[in-house]
Amino acid sequence: MKERTGIILLLILYGVGITSLMVNDLRSVVLPLSPYTLLLSFLILMTSFRWKSSLVWVAVLVFLVGFTAEWLGVHKGWLFGSYSYGSNLGPKIARVPIIIGVNWAMLTVVTGAVAAAFIKRPWVIVVVAALLMTGLDYFMEPVAVENEYWFWRGEKIPLYNYICWFLVALLTQGINVGISKTKANNTTWVLFFSLILFFVIQFYF
Question: 201, 139 in Cβ contact below 8 A?
């Protein structure tokens, strides 16, 4: 019953989100709600696994790794390229939205679980899941700029960004698989495809 409720909530969240963002008059209302959508998605995902202690550790560690990587990117330009965050991802610490660490944790758990559903060797799971994360980022980047989540200097997304995404994803997936190799459940699949549809539809339309 709890899993079904979570799945229904995810379908409503992303269905309404995708539809609303296609209507210009609604974009200014919906976009500031993005961090809350991400947080609720993350909580639904974690609840579907009954907050396993190992998975909580994964989430905490990946949050720290992802947030640190973004801090280095924003302040030093060492990772991803030259970019800055807008206001639609909510409160920031040192110019980095808090929710961005949650997003790294959520994407790591989701793609890791999807890869583990088909693959047994841990190192292959790490690589495939990191590739899935990078592939999702390919569609996410231009949509994020359009939605004013973040901005690239010169308005050009560098190849370096995707290289860094893959390398950081390898690290977060290594943490994920090393501590808690979780296989996908129904909630994971719904969230995974909801995220793909959310960004791919906006990418093309």
Answer: no
